[in-house]
């Protein structure tokens, strides 16, 4: 069995242990981050949509930082939205606050009917900086 190199952000270990999953796993120079939602410290949903999206990004950034990475190292993003036709515009006006400058990562958006009480979730794969490609891309 492969040993998992788990990354835990500070202060949220109990939440992950209770729900029985790892926030992120390092493997072969990549960081695979579990879907992050806008949860409060106790794991409950942030009730305001805009605050929930910001908190999801902040939770994601805390995991990336724990691995020595930033959102600039993200190469692939999957977002899940409940009722995307009604929340997309609200969500997408917040994304540039965290997304950074082009070139942007790849993106897959998925509309879902249920996210355990949340309206938005973001899952990413990042290339770890110490494993970064040394080539110069023009």
Automatic annotation (TrEMBL):
InterPro entries: RutC-like_sf, YjgF/YER057c/UK114, YjgH-like. One of its GO terms (molecular function) is deaminase activity. Pfam families: Ribonuc_L-PSP (PF01042). Transmembrane segments: none annotated. GO terms for cellular component: cytosol. Gene3D superfamilies: RutC-like (3.30.1330.40). It comes from the Bacteria. Signal peptide: none annotated. PANTHER family: 2-IMINOBUTANOATE/2-IMINOPROPANOATE DEAMINASE RIDA (PTHR11803), RUTC FAMILY PROTEIN YJGH (PTHR11803:SF44). This is RidA family protein. It comes from Cellvibrio polysaccharolyticus. The lineage of its organism: Bacteria, Pseudomonadati, Pseudomonadota, Gammaproteobacteria, Cellvibrionales.
């Amino acid at each position: 069995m492969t040993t998992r190199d788990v990354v835990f952000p500070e202060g949220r270990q109990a939440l992950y242990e209770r729900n029985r999953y790892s926030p992120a796993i390092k493997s072969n120079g990549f960081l695979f981050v579990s879907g992050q939602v806008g949860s409060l410290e106790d794991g409950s949903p942030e009730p305001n949509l805009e605050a929930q999206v910001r908190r999801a990004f902040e939770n994601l950034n805390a995991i990336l930082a724990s691995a020595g990475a930033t959102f600039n190292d993200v190469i692939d993003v999957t977002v899940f939205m409940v009722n995307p036709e009604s929340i997309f515009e609200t969500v997408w006006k917040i994304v540039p606050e965290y997304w950074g400058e082009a070139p942007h990562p790849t993106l897959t958006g998925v509309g879902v009917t249920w996210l355990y009480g949340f309206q938005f979730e973001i899952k990413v794969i990042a290339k770890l900086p110490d494993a970064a490609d040394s080539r110069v891309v023009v």
